[in-house]
Design brief:
The chain folds into 2 domains: 170 residues, Leucine Dehydrogenase, chain A, domain 1 (Rossmann fold, 3-Layer(aba) Sandwich), CATH 3.40.50; 153 residues, 3-Layer(aba) Sandwich (Rossmann fold), CATH 3.40.50. The protein is globular, with a radius of gyration of 21 Å. Strands 9-8-7-6-10-11-12 form a 7-stranded mixed sheet, with helices on both faces. The protein has 420 residues and is of the alpha/beta class. The chain is built from 13 helices and 12 strands.
Length: 420
């Protein structure tokens, strides 16, 4: 069995295949090339968990993967989902390394997860899972070692429990141990909105390159969690027509545009976009609606070779992690669709997290307007650099973004040298 087989999953295989293509293109040193395919640390933990009824004690599996420690502390979210596995977490940690390097953050990539479905868990059950998982991670996390954040199935409250657990173990308040926590505990007021608004800021920069205006665009958003909601709200505020959105409960469509603030009110009462009275329920495939901008903001692998030809968007902006497979990537390029990859498009979250971490470690306060301006500046500057690389090398934006990220991480490895 090869080393790569240890992390076998479809997502990991896709990430490594993508990586191999880019490292071939840039002729990366073979030693560094092989080293960056594997994480520096991969921790697997098991721990007991009891439901509220206390009928039995289950054994739960959790992971924390740190891809590269050459750039500074590692950074990445924690996800709760029944299908979480070591290969998926490793793939996401690798992507976090490239993402941080692309936008110029002093982080290596990390990711964590617990293989449990959070949907049926009570608040007390989720808290017990989180606190015990955090206790198992104590040897590898720290304010200057590895800083978790929220991801699929976790939120501000989850981060608050992690912070409290860690702080109790070390004996002093440690707000910098996590990002994406509530503002009352030192969280950034812009973090919740940062990924979705960052997606729109980068989409706007792309439209400028095509001499198009965002306010004249039609937008379809697949997934209406944290990323999708704020991408929708930002689009609405810019004057674009958000014509369709969906979530796990269903989809809605209005060719004249959906009133997003009213939809927020609807969701607060009904928990799903379905049956919103400002749009029609929609039973067909939302990804295939004709539009200017398509934002897949739910889960990975939704745009594949069997549906890529049916995509009628001019631009795809990946709000989710790995929503497009490599085979679909090629089909979309051949069809003239401009695709802005996840490692650039959804980097707003980690960028805002960096600001939060800096404020926590330095006991410093920035105003909301200043944070938003800094965020947009970082993201649009990164987009400009990636666009230039794309044109110079005559490659698509995903390849260009990977060239930038991989070269920067490889340079850090080479510069630090080999120990011992």
């Amino acid at each position: 069995m090869s080393n790569l087989d240890l992390f076998g999953s479809n997502m990991y295989k896709e990430v490594i295949k993508q990586y191999d293509e880019v490292t071939d293109f840039i002729n990366l040193d073979s030693n560094i090339r092989e080293r960056l395919k594997l994480p520096q640390r991969a921790l697997t933990v098991t721990f007991p968990f009891r439901r509220d009824e206390y009928d039995e004690v289950e054994t739960v599996i959790g992971y924390r993967v740190q891809h590269v420690l050459s750039m500074g502390p590692t950074k990445g979210g924690i996800r709760y989902a029944s299908n979480v596995n070591l290969g998926e977490v490793t793939a996401l940690a690798i992507l976090m390394s490239w993402k941080s390097a692309i936008v110029g953050l002093p982080y290596g990539g990390a990711k964590g997860g617990v293989a449990i479905d959070p949907t049926p868990l009570s608040k007390q059950e989720k808290q017990r899972v989180t606190r015990r998982y955090t206790a198992e991670l104590l040897p590898v996390i720290g304010v200057d070692k590895d800083i978790p954040g929220p991801d699929l199935g976790t939120d501000e409250q989850t981060m608050a429990w992690i912070m409290d657990t860690y702080s109790n173990f070390v004996g002093s308040p440690q707000p910098g141990i996590v990002t994406g926590k509530p503002a009352s505990l030192g969280g950034s007021i812009t973090r919740r909105e940062a990924t979705g608004r960052g997606v729109v800021a980068i989409a706007n920069a792309a439209l400028d390159k095509l001499n198009l205006k965002y306010e004249n665009s039609t937008v379809v958003i697949q997934g209406f969690g944290n990323v999708g909601r704020y991408a929708a709200l930002d689009s609405y505020e810019r004057g674009a027509k958000v014509i369709a959105v969906n979530d796990l409960g269903g989809a809605i469509y209005n060719k004249n545009g959906i009133n997003i603030p009213e939809l927020f009110k609807h969701i607060a009462k009904n928990k799903s976009v379905k049956d919103f009275n400002g749009a029609d329920n929609f039973d067909d495939e939302i990804l295939e609606i004709e539009c200017d901008i398509l934002i897949p903001a739910a889960v990975g692998g939704v745009i594949k070779s069997n549906n890529a030809d049916n995509i009628k968007a001019k631009i795809i902006v990946e709000g989710a992690n790995s929503p497009t497979t490599l085979s679909a990537d090629k089909i979309l390029r051949d069809n003239g669709v401009l695709l802005i990859p996840d490692i650039l498009a959804n980097a707003g979250g980690v960028t805002a997290s960096y600001f939060e971490w800096v404020q926590n470690t330095q006991n410093y306060l920035w105003k909301e307007k200043e944070l938003h301006e800094r965020l947009i500046d970082v993201l649009t500057s990164a987009f400009e650099e990636v666009w230039i690389i794309s044109e110079k090398n005559k490659v698509d934006l995903r390849t260009a973004a990977l060239i930038k990220g991989i070269k920067k991480v490889a340079a850090a490895k080479l510069t630090r040298g080999l120990f011992p």
